[in-house]
Write a structure and sequence with these properties.
It is built from 21 helices and two strands. The protein has about 550 residues and is mainly alpha-helical. Helix 5 runs antiparallel to helix 12. The longest helix is centred in the first third of the chain and has 50 residues.
Length: about 550
């Protein structure tokens, strides 16, 4: 598969000195350890470029570099839809949700739900968010990072996992959100340049794009659909158009992990500009991660038949997985020096995602649990509690990895991420959307829908795992069997419809005992910022440009 040169190792070491240097400088300058507003929200004074770059870098972790390139190598091209749709949903965050969030002055998304509904809704979202971070972001990123160490550096999987956690936690625990965001800015540049380099040198190795298409035509099981965004049984178009946006609204518009960057903005306009910039950046993964995976597939069937084979450095056992596509491509075709920079970019992607989720998780625990229990806690005490919460959740994330390995055997870790989110996100997305646009929704309706959705979502995850283990066999014709075997995006639609129905019915039935709704937290036409000047603004024109580009991509890769 190729190997690293000593010059590559020098580049990797130099890159990490740069990242840790930036984190140390920001930590010292901002005194993040003594003030909760600086530690958790960067002082609420960040600009649009920093916010947009951090939105992109925090989202694009090693799991994306591995999972998306693996999707390209497997012919699961529609997984690019989650990236393309994200560009549109970030526009929704900037234009619809941001004004409510910033005007409310909240630190966390559960805090916003408490203001809109009640304390129970806040507690629910805090718990579910932390659970989802363990099941997806923390364990998933550690898993992907360990795989990077195993493939690129020949370090055993679990050793890589431990190194991953220690290296990332070092600057996250002490630096706070501003250290995370400023290191994200540097790392996002590396992702983009590295992805472009992987595409360029991959095409050089195989002799051009025409040879890639020829390799697909001669060797792919379904050459006509290998590069189609719409024609794939695993990702039906109904699920992509109706189910994937539900996941996207939860992740991009209501999840603390992402929205925390927007809350750190100077004002609403700056936050909106940051989301638009982030939307443009989210159009890139199709070209810098998916396409290199496709090139890696073409090379594996023409030049390097063992390209996706990984050897355990201790036991000598080998396994084949398409999730090794981009690391393998880096080692095989990259020139010395650039190869080291790409490896550094991989590890930087891993660190940016982990550092972001560490900071977000500590924010949730500190403000939604500890501060409620000890309202008189000092600023320094809040920061220290956030650090301890991060350490505890990392241990839980490590414990979940063996279960995740079972669910991702043979490749497809990006699909695992999306499927788990499909079981968690619909009731939360429904609570935020209806809460903002329909003032008759109340706390009782929201709580009933949230808990019913949680039971149905986690139930699907448990039954899916049990059926894969072979301990349970369900008939596809039974109601339970249909719910367990239906496509995960279709299940997200089902779960969203059930949640909305419960929310509306219970809310209307309990109107007499519902508390009054704060008018600042619900959309009202007479206080809307929409007007003739808005349609002439550069933000609006850039929004239209993103929509046009998305429609063009859908047409080109139909």
């Amino acid at each position: 598969m190729g190997e690293l040169n000593p010059l590559d190792l020098v580049v990797i070491i130099g890159y990490f000195i740069l990242v840790f240097g930036i984190a140390w400088y920001v930590t010292k300058k901002e005194k993040a350890g003594s003030d909760s507003s600086h530690y958790f929200l960067g002082g609420r004074n960040l600009g649009w470029f920093a916010i947009g770059a951090s939105l992109f870098a925090s989202n694009i972790g090693s799991e994306h570099l591995i999972g998306l390139s693996g999707a390209g190598a497997r012919g699961a091209f529609p997984e690019a839809q989650f990236e393309i749709l994200a560009a549109l949903i970030l526009l929704l965050l900037g234009w619809v949700f941001v004004p409510f969030y910033i005007k409310s002055g909240v630190f966390t998304m559960p805090e916003f739900l408490e203001k809109r509904y009640n304390r129970g809704a806040r507690t629910y979202l805090s718990i579910i968010s932390i659970i989802s971070y363990v099941l997806t972001k923390i364990s998933f990123t550690i898993f992907a990072g360990a795989l990077v160490f195993e493939v690129l550096l020949g370090i055993p999987f679990w050793t890589g996992a431990i190194i991953t956690v220690f290296a990332t936690g070092l600057y996250t625990v002490f630096g706070g959100l501003k250290a995370v965001i400023y290191t994200d800015m540097v790392q996002s540049i590396i992702f983009i340049l590295g992805g472009v380099a992987a595409t360029y040198f991959g095409l050089q190795a195989i002799g051009g794009w025409d040879n890639v298409l020829l390799a697909i035509e001669d060797n792919a099981p379904s050459p006509d659909t290998f590069m189609s965004l719409w024609r794939n049984e695993e990702y039906p178009w109904t699920g992509v158009l109706l189910g994937a946006p539900i996941l996207g609204i939860w992740y991009w518009c209501t999840d603390q992990f992402i929205v925390q960057r927007v809350l750190s903005a100077k004002n609403i306009k700056t936050a909106r500009q940051g989301t638009i910039f982030g939307g443009f950046l989210k159009l890139l993964p199709l070209f810098i991660f998916i396409i290199p995976g496709i090139i890696a597939y073409a090379l594996s069937v023409t030049e390097y038949p063992d390209l996706f084979t990984i050897e355990n450095p201790i036991t000598g056992e080998t396994k084949t997985t398409t999730d090794a596509a981009l690391p393998a491509l880096i080692l095989q075709v990259m020139p010395v020096g650039i190869k080291g920079l790409m490896v550094a970019g991989f590890l930087a992607a891993l660190m940016s995602s982990l550092s972001s989720v560490f900071n977000s998780t500590s924010t949730l625990f500190t403000f939604d649990f500890y501060k409620q229990w000890r309202p008189g806690a000092s600023e320094k005490e809040l920061v220290n509690v956030g650090r301890l919460a991060t350490i505890a959740l990392v241990l839980v994330g490590l414990a979940w990895i063996p279960f995740m390995q079972k669910l991702t055997e043979g490749g497809g870790i990006y699909r695992y991420l999306q499927s788990v989110q499909a079981y968690i996100s619909p009731p939360i997305a429904a609570a935020f959307l209806l809460g903002i646009f329909y003032k008759k929704i109340n706390g009782k309706g929201a709580l009933a829908a949230l808990w019913a959705g949680f039971i149905l979502g986690i139930g699907r995850l448990v039954l899916e795992y049990m059926s894969q283990e072979g301990g349970m066999s369900l008939s596809d014709t039974s109601l339970l069997g249909t719910l367990v075997t239906m496509n995960f995006l279709h299940y997200a639609i089902f779960l969203f419809v059930v949640s909305v129905s419960i929310m509306v019915v219970v809310s209307l039935a309990t109107q007499a005992t519902a508390k009054p709704v704060d008018g600042q937290l619900v959309y009202q036409r007479h206080v809307s910022q929409a007007g003739p000047s808005m349609f002439r603004s550069k933000e609006f024109l850039l929004t239209v440009l993103i929509i046009v580009i998305v429609l063009a991509l859908w047409w080109i890769f139909r």
